[in-house]
Amino acid sequence: MDREEALEIVKAQLTEHRYIHTLGVMETAIELADRYGASKEKAELAAIFHDYAKFRSKDEMREIVMQQGMPESLLHYGTELLHAPVGAYLVKEEAGIEDLEVLEAIANHTTGRAAMGTLEKIIFLADYIEPGRIFPGVDEVRQLAKGNLNLACIQALKNTVGFLMKQNQLIYPETIYTYNSLLAEVN
Ligand code: DGI
Ligand code: FE
Ligand code: FE
Ligand code: FE
């Protein structure tokens, strides 16, 4: 599937704001793939589709989690987590994307996972640092992303976990496993 076709499919699923975010993730992911030796084609495709399910209803997402035998624990940490694994499922079903690396990068873009591959790290990070993001601390992560993919992902995770904790939100265990795993990789 080429870029134009993929963007057209995704545009119909998203708001204007989220579509612009997606274009930012696409550009950033291609740049990171170039820098860190991953497939630019896969980075482009995963980035374009990463938020495919962002606007599906909570009921539909919960139903897919249960029907498809995804971890039931996903249902107990707020609904923001669901669009990533559910998105990977729907992108396969509805858009016919079969590449497992691409689907995994979509599935894990919100929490990461332990022992992420380079493409997964790239999509996780591109989602955090694309030019439209204005989180406190995002510039520090952008700087780290120029030289060290793992350190940049660690800093993004630290910021996200800190933000969630300040808001008394639950931390999904996989988010912590992601942090521990990245730390082990750099030490
Ligand atoms: O979909 P985006 O907004 O582009 O970004 P995303 O897929 O990274 O989702 C960000 C949201 O996910 C944000 O509201 C924080 C939430 N999130 C990320 N990790 C965790 C989490 N929420 C909980 N409860 N626990 C987590 O570990
Ligand atoms: Fe997302
Ligand atoms: Fe993210
Ligand atoms: Fe996103």
Automatic annotation (TrEMBL):
It holds the Pfam family HD. GO terms for molecular function: bis(5'-nucleosyl)-tetraphosphatase (symmetrical) activity; metal ion binding; nucleotide binding. Its EC number is 3.6.1.41. It catalyses: P(1),P(4)-bis(5'-adenosyl) tetraphosphate + H2O = 2 ADP + 2 H(+). CDD domains: HDc. SMART domains: HDc. This is bis(5'-nucleosyl)-tetraphosphatase (symmetrical). Keywords: Hydrolase, Iron, Metal-binding, Nucleotide-binding. Residues 18-132 form the HD domain. The keyword NAD does not apply. It is an enzyme of class 3 (hydrolase). InterPro entries: Diverse_Catalytic_Enzymes, HD/PDEase_dom, HD_domain, HDIG_dom, YqeK.
